[in-house]
Structure formats: structure tokens, C-alpha cells
């Protein structure tokens, strides 16, 4: 069994809507077609950061551009999923401070539909793809519920 | 009449609350006391960009850190003025794209109290101090009115 297959933990996780959204976003980045023959799992693998991998990273550090890109695309996928469910256009805004601290907000109209304080961005990742799906789905649910609660602000 | 005095256009402008807030913020930056003997006008002078000065700047350009700092402190002053009037804590968030485009939002709770698309940030400035006060006051008014309109979101 390859490591990639291990990560997938069965096909069901790969079928999750948030994963499909994320894969679409990553494929759209691939303007030169260099990932055409790569599997979806190959593209998602850098999101997986199990305890062994995590221990190898410094406690405090400045996130590199690749990590920030991964984080942005993850929240882009959340934003698109909220859009699909509510028809409200969502714009993400990221503010990075020093040493991996930051804030991500997803904005719909004049509403902050999701507000996330970030810590240890240089160690952004998930124990497993299932955990990624769980967290992504939770954010989508929170965002959708904020929009349903304050529709006049989201459509301002 | 010195250029500085010209800029001031009378003491009334310097007495505007937004100017007082801005001066306080600039003085707070001065941790080494190097501006102690400098007048308020000296600190505000870089905000003034009349047509002659503006013509000397390139049409398109990446804003330098000093210009971004000036812009941030201007919106910090707006944020503090809104806070003073509404008792809602306001956090500014700036996203800069390339070539001087960007977006500034002032956030209170889950509400975007002010949303400002930015263009030509490398040429950020005002024709006169009176114009700065006029624009700042308008932003404060807009922000306060958003909070009064959606208090439950601002206090979420």
C-alpha cells in the first residue's frame, strides 16, 4: 500500500465536496499542464501533516510562500462551497503578521461570514484528509449559518 | 508664510478630531523621541499631495513601505474615531495586491463597517489637510452609520 493510498483512507473522503472544490482550484493553478498525469492525492499530499512530520518543523517560524498558498487555496475552497450553497459571493482576506500569526476572514457583502485567527501558519496542515474534510465542512456550515442569520448584511 | 503654514490653512483644520487622532498615532510611533521638537504640521506634511507633487509620481507603481504606513495610520485614526463614537472595537485589515491596488476594511464584530477599494496607493495623499479631514470624517460617519444600522452584527 503506497503512502498516498494511506492518506486517502478510502475513496469516500476524496468524494467530499470540499475536496472536489480544492482539487479544482489546484488544477486551475497548473497552467503549464505539469500535473496532468498526477493524481488528486498527489496534489493534496502536502496538506497532510501528521505528528511525525509536525515534530520536524520548528515551533516558531515564518511561513514560506508555498504554505501560505496552500492555506489560501483551502479557504478559497471553503469560500466557493459557501457561495454554492447561498449564492452570496465570498471574498477571502488574509492578514499575516510575524512568526506565523495571522487572520483569515471570508467576506460576503458587509458580513464576516467566517473569522479565523491563525497560529503557527508555518505548520498549517491536517492529521489526515478526513480531518481536512471535517474542518472544511465545519467552516462551510458556520459561514452558511452566518449568512442565513444576517441575510441583509450579506447581501448589502 | 512657510509651506507648513500654507498646508495648515488655519488652526481650525488642526483642531479636527480626526487630525488629533492621527497626530496621537504618529507621536506614539516616535519611540526614540526624535520628533519631540517637531510640529504637528511637520508630521502631517507627507499626507499632502497637491497636483504638482502628484505629477512627479509615476502613474503606476508599487507603493513603498512609508506610503503604506501613512495609509494604515490614516485608517487607524478613522477606526479609533468610530470606536470613540460607538464603543465598538474596530480592527483594520489591509490587503495589498500588485501595482498599488488593494482593499482596506474596518471590522467591528462580524460587520465590515467600512469597505474601501484602493487604487494608486503609491500616490496616496490629499490635496490639502482640509480634504484629509473631509474624507476622514466621511469614513467615520459611514462607519458609525453602518454600526447603528446593524448593531447585532457589530456586537456579535
Q: Main attributes?
A:
156 residues, 3-stranded antiparallel β-sheet, 14% strand, homodimer, alpha+beta
Question: Mind sketching the topology for me?
Answer:
The structure is a homodimer of 156-residue chains.
Chain A: H1 3-8, H2 11-14, H3 17-29, H4 40-44, H5 51-55, H6 65-86, E1 90-96, E2 102-108, E3 111-118, H7 129-149, H8 151-154
Antiparallel strand pairs in A: 1-2, 2-3
Helix pairs in contact in A: 3-6, 6-7
Note the quaternary state here. homodimer
Helical residue percent band of chain A: 40-55%
Structural class of chain A: alpha+beta
Contiguous helical run count of chain A: 8
Descriptive account of the structure:
Two copies of one chain form a homodimer. By secondary structure, chain A is of the alpha+beta class. Chain A is 51% helix and 14% strand. Chain A has eight helices and three strands; from the N terminus they run ααααααβββαα. Chain A has helices at residues 3-8, 11-14, 17-29, 40-44, 51-55, 65-86, 129-149, 151-154, and strands spanning 90-96, 102-108, 111-118. In chain A, a hairpin with a 5-residue loop joins β1 and β2. The interface between A and B is medium-sized, with 15 and 15 residues.
